[in-house]
């Protein structure tokens, strides 16, 4: 039996339709695939772009906060916070660069934003702290300068003539120099430096004031005895109807009493170490005690024009001198000294004598004419009733 193969012949138009259908299907599949890729990629891009903009904003805010902290001088007044913020800025820039080297889909911009936000917070805190510290230091420096200026003026006013010694005078001069530097730093707005200099100056000047005050207080322990000497001298002038001389060392005055009242007063200059009682020859101290005039000299008899010699050392001076030697307070070879005078040649505005009392020549000439041999001369450190006697 013969098999006959039947061939089906399709029309050409049908083949073309089939090919077009297949192509459309392929295109549809490709389109779907491309869409499936493009949409996530686009969404990733949009998310990355949004995150990048937010990171940009954070970094920009951090930069502005750091600049504001710098303008507030946080590097000087809040250095720890400022340095921490500066380190975070470096970390932010490093993280920013590292993320930018990655493909967009794999970037973690949130890390940059978080570091930048933390850095901005610390920079803001540094700026605020700096302003607070700066204002505090400014106020502190101003108050210190005010107090220091008053202290220096007080020392100069109260202790200008006190023989405080070279060390104390150097300390006072150093304090005044620091005060000047403090004012300059304050005017430049360098309040931390101004406060530091003011503190150092205040310590120096306070030490000078305290030590000098203690020295004066110690010196004034003899005030009751001095007052008694002066009262006795005034009483003598009233009883004898004759003049008597009182030298008040702290006031730098030589006063003449007659019949119990003050009749003349002259400025006086003393030995450099006047704030002690004379004990030996060469100590440059003006003696304290009750003396009398034992000689009057003028013309060629004295190089100072006029001079009144007093009886230093008296019995009390000799007793103290012997006792000081026994105690070892002065050298065994020391001599007690003498030839203490009230003389002319003054007017030098300093204490320069070897222990004498110096008056300007016109005053000395007037005093010379008012007194005689035997006139009492009382020399004291201070006198508490002097205002009542005037």
Question: How would you describe this structure to a colleague?
Answer:
The chain is of the alpha+beta class. Helices cover 60% and strands 11% of the residues. The protein contains ten helices and eight strands. Strands 3-2-1-8-4-5-6-7 form an eight-stranded mixed sheet. It is rod-shaped. The N and C termini lie far apart (174 Å).
Note the topology.
Blueprint: H1 12-71, H2 74-77, H3 79-100, H4 109-159, H5 166-187, H6 191-219, H7 223-240, E1 243-248, E2 253-258, E3 261-267, E4 289-298, E5 306-310, H8 315-327, E6 341-343, E7 357-358, H9 361-370, E8 376-380, H10 386-389
Parallel strand pairs: 1-8, 6-7
Antiparallel strand pairs: 1-2, 2-3, 4-5, 4-8, 5-6
Helix pairs in contact: 1-3, 1-4, 3-4, 4-5, 4-6, 5-6
Summarize the structure.
This protein has helices at 12-71, 74-77, 79-100, 109-159, 166-187, 191-219, 223-240, 315-327, 361-370, 386-389, and strands spanning 243-248, 253-258, 261-267, 289-298, 306-310, 341-343, 357-358, 376-380. The chain is an alpha+beta fold and 390 residues long.
């Amino acid at each position: 039996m013969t098999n006959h193969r039947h061939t089906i012949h399709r029309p050409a138009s049908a083949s073309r339709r089939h090919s077009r259908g297949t192509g459309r299907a392929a295109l549809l599949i490709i389109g779907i695939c491309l869409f499936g890729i493009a949409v996530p990629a686009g969404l990733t891009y949009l998310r990355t772009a949004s995150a990048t903009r937010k990171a940009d904003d954070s970094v920009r805010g951090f930069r502005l906060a750091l600049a504001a902290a710098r303008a507030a001088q946080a590097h000087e007044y809040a250095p720890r916070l400022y340095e921490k913020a500066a380190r975070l800025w470096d970390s932010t820039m490093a993280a920013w660069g590292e993320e930018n080297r990655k493909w967009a889909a794999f970037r973690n911009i949130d890390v940059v934003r978080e570091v930048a936000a933390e850095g901005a917070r610390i920079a803001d805190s540094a700026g605020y702290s700096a302003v607070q510290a700066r204002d505090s230091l400014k106020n502190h420096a101003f108050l210190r300068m005010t107090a220091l200026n008053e202290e220096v003026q007080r020392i100069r006013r109260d202790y200008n003539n006190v023989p405080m010694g070279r060390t104390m005078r150097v300390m006072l001069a150093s304090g005044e120099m620091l005060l000047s530097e403090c004012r300059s730093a304050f005017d430049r707005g360098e309040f931390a430096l101004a406060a530091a200099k003011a503190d150092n100056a205040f310590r120096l000047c306070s030490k000078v004031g305290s030590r000098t005050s203690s020295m004066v207080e110690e010196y004034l322990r003899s005030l009751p005895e001095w007052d008694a000497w002066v009262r006795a001298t005034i009483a003598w002038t009233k009883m004898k109807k004759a003049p008597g001389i009182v030298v008040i060392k702290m006031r730098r005055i030589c006063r003449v009493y007659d019949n119990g009242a003050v009749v003349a007063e002259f400025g006086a200059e003393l030995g450099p170490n006047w704030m002690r009682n004379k004990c030996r020859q060469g100590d440059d101290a003006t003696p304290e005690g009750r003396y009398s005039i034992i000689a009057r000299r003028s013309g060629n008899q004295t190089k100072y024009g006029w001079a009144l010699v007093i009886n230093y050392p008296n019995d009390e001076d000799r007793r103290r001198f012997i006792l000081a030697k026994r105690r070892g307070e002065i050298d065994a070879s020391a001599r007690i000294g003498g030839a203490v005078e009230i003389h002319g040649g003054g007017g030098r505005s300093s204490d320069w004598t070897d222990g004498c009392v110096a008056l300007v020549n016109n005053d000395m000439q007037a005093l010379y004419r008012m007194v005689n041999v035997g006139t009492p001369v009382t020399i004291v450190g201070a006198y508490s009733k002097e205002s009542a006697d005037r």
